[in-house]
Amino acid sequence: MKSIEVTGKNVDDAIAKALQKLNVAKDEIEYEVIDEGSKGLFNFIGSKPAKLVVSLKKSYIDNAKEFLVNILNSMGIEPQIKITEEGNTIKIDLEGIKMGNVIGYRGETLDSLQYLLSLVINKNHEIPYKRVVLDVENYRLKREETLKRVAEKTAYKVKKISRAYKLEPMNPYERRIIHSALQDKEGIFTYSEGEEPYRRVVVDIKPKK
To answer: What is the pLDDT, as a whole number, of residue 127?
Structure first.
């Protein structure tokens, strides 16, 4: 975090100089008063300038990156982190070694980290809610493509045996992919059953009217 030391005739003057040097607004800084200064005798003799240490406030992006680095370093992982923001969505992409440990079983660790990052980023309610998407080497797209293939194969199987088929338990995000993939499939419909974390998609034959 960038910090500078500034002096001025008084605290307000020192702050104004800091804002000019850093080219930021007042709500983007935090400061510590080292010396409030004094006007001296007749506002001249023995006067002392005010002295401040001024720092840029950490943004929610800075907080997210620091949190993620600390967590992953504790796992022995030093990733490359790329953060992009479009509208109200923040996408965080990770690359490096041992990335399988970050993904976890069927993405469970990745989903947990994504949830925690969302809490870190959205703890400041002065900003609009930000949707956080954490990904590792394009894992989510690859997983989505795999689930779509599973959906198609399952639909084919259900049509062939004319009987419902239950898929393995999935999280809400993955269940939505299955439902979406088969929503327009002729002769097929889907629904979810069970309680979290064992809730699963059922692919069934659509009743004839």
So the answer is: 76
Superfamily of chain region 142-205: R3H-like domain (3.30.1370.50)
Q: Cα separations (Å) of 35 from 16, 22, 32, 131, 167?
A: 16, 21, 9, 43, 68
Measure the CA angle with vertex 156, ends 154 and 162; round to 5°: 95
Alpha-carbon span 49 to 6, nearest angstrom: 10
User: What are the distances in angstroms from CA 78 to CA 68, 82, 96, 111, 193?
Assistant: 10, 13, 7, 19, 40
CB 96 within 8 A of CB 80: yes
Q: Rounded to an integer, what distance in angstroms lies between the CA atom of residue 192 and that of residue 195? A: 9
Query: Which pTM value belongs to this model?
Result: 0.71
Query: Minimal CA–CA distance to 75: which of 52, 109, 49, 48?
Result: 109
Tokens of 61: 């992006």
Q: What is the mean pLDDT of residues 50-77?
A: 89
In the chain, which residues fall in CATH 3.30.1370.50? 142-205
Strand ranges in the chain using DSSP code E only, listed in sequence order: 3-8, 29-35, 50-56, 80-86, 89-95, 131-136, 165-166, 188-193, 200-205
The CATH class that applies to domain 3-56 reads alpha beta
Task: Domain 60-137: give its CATH code.
Answer: 3.30.300.20
* Residue type (1 letter), 77: I
For 4, 10, 157, 201, the CA distances from 147, given in Å and listed in that order, are 52, 64, 15, 12
pLDDT score of 154 more than 80: yes
